[in-house]
């Protein structure tokens, strides 16, 4: 069997980014507010909003920072309850706690999407919702928005894994009141760290900009659509000047210089990532031991990893499968079995109360995750699929013996 590919390295950073970084290093102009206008971070915000089809964008230090600022910008009262899926990364409930709110967890099904019955049952007890499109799996946004809009409950989209994913042709992150994205190295656009939020709400973006660290009158360097300051945006900034605390969660010009040249690559990366995922998924689904859940009908995903459930394997067999795959060179993360996994809700010991969520727990105990960077070739994908299939056959063969 051929050697497995390295799935940790990302695509090379475009040469244009290296040129922009060299220019910044020569000038020393790394702070986003030094330039009178058109700093790299400002340009990134304008380009990103236009790319996604949103009016406003704010680039910050991480997606966690974007989620936190979104909640603070909503003006929620202390101890407001925020409904989140129980299958998400620990940064999501952490952002709720940092915003002086209380996370409320709802069940997630075997297809990694929100259980709509549990969601609806808990909705009347909350003041806001964060929808995590975890690993790019989109829940039923039609049903979610109908339920939340009827109650006047704002929806924040955690789209950290979903840049390029669409729902009915509309970009994920533009459906709720605000969308939050990540530029961490394992995401579709890689800056090592970084995040951005988008919204069409002038008052919300003004509050978020000021709290992100736009002290004094630096908010004037933030622009609306087409690089303009619209009257409603200027009025919102003037309203909140000196009225809000500063958390200093800004992005630097260096990060923006790394990100901007990657945006034109997004369409290709989305296309290649989806093709890679579907190719490996089809091979795995041909085996009786694997179940790769299908997307919902309105959803077009932009994956750079694959998730699958192990069918009819008990915990011991699941552990044996993961060990066999790793021995052959493919690391399989089983969300509920990987020690101290930050995506297993029972490890979020910082919460006031950890609920009993048997459906989500059962899913996490058999849900597997394997990276599939978009740069992989068909031959490399075959090596990964061959190893996973062989590990399953080996595990079940030993069980039968």
From TrEMBL:
InterPro entries the UniProt entry points to: DegT/StrS_aminotransferase, PyrdxlP-dep_Trfase, PyrdxlP-dep_Trfase_major, PyrdxlP-dep_Trfase_small
Gene3D superfamilies for the chain: Aspartate Aminotransferase, domain 1 (3.90.1150.10), Type I PLP-dependent aspartate aminotransferase-like (Major domain) (3.40.640.10)
A Pfam family per the record: DegT_DnrJ_EryC1
Coiled-coil residue spans: none
Keyword Protease carried by entry: no
Top-rank taxon: Bacteria
Keyword set, alphabetical order: Aminotransferase, Pyridoxal phosphate, Transferase
Single GO molecular function: transaminase activity
Family, as annotated: Belongs to the DegT/DnrJ/EryC1 family.
Name of this chain's protein: Aminotransferase class I/II-fold pyridoxal phosphate-dependent enzyme
Species in which this protein is naturally found: Leisingera daeponensis
């Amino acid at each position: 069997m051929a050697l497995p590919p390295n799935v940790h390295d990302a695509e090379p950073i475009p040469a244009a980014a290296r040129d922009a970084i060299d220019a910044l290093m020569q000038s020393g102009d790394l702070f986003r507010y030094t330039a009178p206008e058109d700093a790299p971070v400002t340009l990134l915000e304008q380009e990103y909003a236009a790319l996604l089809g949103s009016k406003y964008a704010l680039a910050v230090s991480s997606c966690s920072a974007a989620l936190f600022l979104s909640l603070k910008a909503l003006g929620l009262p202390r101890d407001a309850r925020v409904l989140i899926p129980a299958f998400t990364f620990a940064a999501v409930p952490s952002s709720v706690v940092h915003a002086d709110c209380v996370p409320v967890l709802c069940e997630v099904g075997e297809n990694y999407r929100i259980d709509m019955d549990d969601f609806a049952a808990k909705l009347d007890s909350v003041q806001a919702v964060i929808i995590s499109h975890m690993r790019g799996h989109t829940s039923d946004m039609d049903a979610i928005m109908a339920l939340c809009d009827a109650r006047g409950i704002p929806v924040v989209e955690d789209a950290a894994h979903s840049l390029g994913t669409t729902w009915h042709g509309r970009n994920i992150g533009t459906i709720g009141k605000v969308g939050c994205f990540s530029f961490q190295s394992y995401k579709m656009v890689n800056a090592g760290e970084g995040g951005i939020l988008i919204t069409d709400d002038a008052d919300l973006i003004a509050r978020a900009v000021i709290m992100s660290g736009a002290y004094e009158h630096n908010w004037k360097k933030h622009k609306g659509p087409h690089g303009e300051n619209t009257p409603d945006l200027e009025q919102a900034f003037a309203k909140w000047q000196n009225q809000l605390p500063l958390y200093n969660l800004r992005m630097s010009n260096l990060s923006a210089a790394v990100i901007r040249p990657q945006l034109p690559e997004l369409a290709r990366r989305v296309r290649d990532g989806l093709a890679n995922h579907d190719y490996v998924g089809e091979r795995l689904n041909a085996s009786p031991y694997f179940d790769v859940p299908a997307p919902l009908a309105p959803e077009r995903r932009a994956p750079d990893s694959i998730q699958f459930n192990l069918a009819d394997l008990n915990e011991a067999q699941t552990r044996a499968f993961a060990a066999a795959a790793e021995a052959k060179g493919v690391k399989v993360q089983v969300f509920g079995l990987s020690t101290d996994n930050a995506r297993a809700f029972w490890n979020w010991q910082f919460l006031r109360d950890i609920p009993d969520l048997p459906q989500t727990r059962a899913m996490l105990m058999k849900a597997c995750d394997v990276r599939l960077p978009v740069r992989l070739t068909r031959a490399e994908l075959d090596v990964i699929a061959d190893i996973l299939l062989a590990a399953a056959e080996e595990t079940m063969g030993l069980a039968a013996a």
